[in-house]
Amino acid sequence: MPSTISTDLDSATVVPPTPDERMPMTPIPKPTSVKAHFNASLDVALQLLQKQSNQTKSSGDDSTSSLSWASAETTKDLPRPRTKNFPELYAAMPDDLITASAADTPFLDTPTCCNSRASSTSISEQQQQKPTDALDGVKGQQDQKEAADTQATCQVRARIPYPGGHFYLHVYHTDEDDKEHLAIVFGDDIRSATLEAPRDGETDMDRKIRGASTGALQQLVTNDIASRAIESDNLDIQSSLPMVHSFEPDPAEMFAASRLSVVDAPLVRIHSECFTGETVSSVRCDCGYQLAEAMRLIQQEGRGVIVYLRQEGRGIGLLEKLKAYNLQDMGHDTVDANLMLNHPADARTYGAARAILSDLGISKLRLLTNNKDKIAQLKGSDVSSKLDIVCHVPMYPRWWQKEGGEAAQLSYSRHLALKRDVMSEADRYLRTKAERMGHMLSFEESLAPSIVIPRAPTSALFSQKI
Ligand SMILES: Nc1nc2c(ncn2[C@@H]2O[C@H](COP(=O)(O)OP(=O)(O)OP(=O)(O)O)[C@@H](O)[C@H]2O)c(=O)[nH]1
Asked: Bias regions of kind Low complexity — which residues (predicted)?
């Protein structure tokens, strides 16, 4: 009987071994870099595969005894990538999608992923404004040092149904604080190394309960092979994969290419908790909009991550944020209100976010943000854990976008109501972010870019019907 591809890592039924059958697992050291992440994944996969193979041997089933995950039947109807190494899938992003070059942006060498000239103008203008002392580069550099050392461990992963699909919610603990930071992951192939790592004495049921995989591990292995090929600059994936020989449409090639997108550049949002904006729909800030918009954009692409950090009130907590709100109602802006309460304008660091992305195997990304400080901190200076932010995607409030753009999707009356509600409150907030915190926002409605989200290099693959 030919073996078939299982695309659901958790769908394979594995009979839990009796205690005697259980193979002792060597603990996998916590990965410290992307390379280590994949090495750890492979080690985990091989150990579990070995374990699974022992189990199936003992149960007389040989269907999982090889890595032959591509069957003849599954190959015949698939479109074939044009060349051996699929260069069209890795084609550089079109020039018109990148408006701000490193040369244009002295404080920021991350281009903007949008097609508007206005955007690069506004960025240059913003960069001439001096950020507040609380946000200057010294703080960023100190934070980067700390960030490189942060360890994040995924405790559990669960599937959450979402309109039009599902995502996986991951709960993380870090050694920085005792909060439950989250990763909202779209895409079945983005996996946590620390979640998958075997834990002493656990059964398959234990693994299932915490959301780690127990079967069908071929994908993890293949994923790792493809990733290693990329890491060593060897794009000849075909020589690294077990079953790619013909020039006929081949799911193995398609699959290998899709694996590469793990180290390509998915959309990522690093989002800070905001109870008021997200849960009770406050329009004092744009946080609720930004979270919803990030989810919409990432779901549209089919894969990507929102790292949801428990940094309420830019790190000062809800209690202090509400005091700051009262000061704002007395006429102070968000920066001054924080300073009057003896807090920095922004108390956040991004070590946890970097550690979580590393754990998820993401080293290259497109970042949804307007915040230069966030980009600088995330990038980091430590070469071994450097994040490659290929561009940033502006998070422009919908009500600032040109008529006929995204705003046109709202009904006219809703649009007017939104405008009326937010103009006085949220616009004041956004204006302060731009003027005093160096956020890359332009107030002129006519300058707001109509945002074009560049497709991930491999997204063509996902849009093909397989
Ligand atoms: N201290 C304080 N925090 C606020 C206020 N309004 C919103 N926040 C918090 O600010 C955080 C969001 O940060 P923002 O500065 O809006 O945006 P950002 O994440 O830095 O930048 P983007 O990536 O462009 O969204 C959330 O944790 C909110 O709870 C406020 O008036 N005072």
From this structure: 56-73
- Which residue from 135, 291, 321 has its CB within 8 A of the most atoms of ligand 1, so it is best to mutate? 321
Give residue-wise pLDDT tens across range 40-54. Answer: 544 554 555 555 555
| Residue 422 Cα distances to 286, 397, 445, angstroms | 9, 10, 14
Give the pLDDT score at 144: 45
Query: For the chain, how long is the longest CA-to-CA vector?
Result: 75
Q: Which residues are near ligand 1 (CB < 6 Å)? A: 272-274, 285, 287, 290, 311-314, 316, 321, 324, 334, 338, 369-371, 374, 395, 433, 439
Provide the residue range defining the domain that includes 435.
Answer: 97-152+262-444
346 part of the active site: yes
Task: Domain count for the chain, please give it.
Answer: 1
Q: Which among 451, 444, 414 has a CA at the least distance from the CA of 427? A: 444
Nearest C-alpha neighbor of 204 from the set 65, 445, 17: 17
Q: Give yes or no: 206 in active site.
A: no
State residue 350's pLDDT score.
95
Q: Which CATH number goes with the domain that contains 331?
A: 3.40.50.10990
Question: 22-26, 265-269, 459-463: lowest mean pLDDT where?
Answer: 459-463
Ligand 1 centroid to 313 CA: how many Å? 6
Q: Name residues whose C-beta falls within 8 Å of residue 26's C-beta, 6 or more positions apart in sequence.
A: 43, 47
End-to-end Cα distance, the chain: 23
Residue located via tokens 């450097």: 386
In a domain? residue 20: no
Contact 3, 66 (CB under 8 A): yes
Q: How far apart are CA 34 and CA 42, in angstroms?
A: 12
Q: Is residue 120 in a domain?
A: yes
Residue 371 counted as domain residue: yes
Question: Is the pLDDT at 332 greater than 50, yes or no?
Answer: yes
Q: Measure the CA–CA gap between 382 and 378, rounded to whole angstroms.
A: 11
Which residue's structure tokens are 């003849």?
72
pLDDT at residue 285 tops 60: yes
